[in-house]
Amino acid sequence: MNNQTLNPSIEWDAELYDSKHAFVSQLGASLIQLLSPQKGERILDLGCGTGHLTQQIAATEATVLGIDSAETMIEQARKNYPTLQFVVEDATNLPFQEEFDAVFSNAVLHWIKQPELVVSSIWRSLKPGGRFVAEFGGKGNVQAITTAIHNVLHSADYATAAFNPWYFPSIGEYSAILEKQGFELTFATLFARPTPLEGEQGMQNWLQMFAKSLFSIVPTEEQSRFMAQIEAELRPQLYQDGKWLVNYKRIQVRAIKP
């Protein structure tokens, strides 16, 4: 994840991310199978967050560089894995020229509302024959949550459109961006992944972690009240068997730079 790339107004709480939202990296572990890292390869983990998947890739004896433009995430990643290399970079303007055998990205690209710049930046970073493997939020991702946020805030005359931090494309839309850049798309899928949250405060923690920019227009002293209203609207749909669920829809892609 990152600050400029995600949203310059977001300050990422690395401790909350690791303590309550570890599922982000845990669910991304299957993406490493699609990446299929090989010993001796040089791999870029774009939006490495707190470094957990970077470490799993490094365990295959590939050489990995973790990047994120959120300094809080990079600081935590360095604490978590002091033997690995992590640096602050902006995914829309990477400084690399044909340096990597693969670029890997999990749960990041839906935060970047300039996908063409990111895809171009990834293209420049890859060696000829290199691969790009990613998973991120696709069309319909967290639809129930975003609808509830907009309904509650609009009812109080808060306009949220300008503060929406997310980009959730269809497969067709994202495939066209990759192919326009010159990538050969070898795999693409959109799938539902209902994901349980931790504890009774799970939805509130999720909103505080991931929807912070949408609440930036609301005075701090009123935010708890609005979150309670959002929870009430979502409870019939997303609270099941004593747990909150997030209605994720994810895209996975694999593309080759000829």
What would a concise description of this structure say?
The chain is an alpha/beta fold. Helices cover 42% and strands 24% of the residues. The protein contains 11 helices and 8 strands.
Helix-strand layout with pairing:
Blueprint: H1 3-6, H2 14-20, H3 23-35, E1 42-46, H4 52-58, E2 63-68, H5 71-80, E3 85-88, E4 100-106, H6 115-125, E5 126-137, H7 143-155, H8 171-181, E6 184-196, H9 202-210, H10 212-215, H11 220-238, E7 239-240, E8 243-256
Parallel strand pairs: 1-2, 1-4, 2-3, 4-5
Antiparallel strand pairs: 5-8, 6-8, 7-8
Task: Write up what this structure looks like.
By secondary structure, the protein is α/β, with parallel strands linked by helices. The chain is 42% helix and 24% strand. Strand 7 and strand 8 form a beta hairpin. The longest helix has 19 residues.
Sum up the structure in keywords.
258 residues; alpha/beta; eight-stranded mixed sheet; 11 helices; globular; disordered N terminus
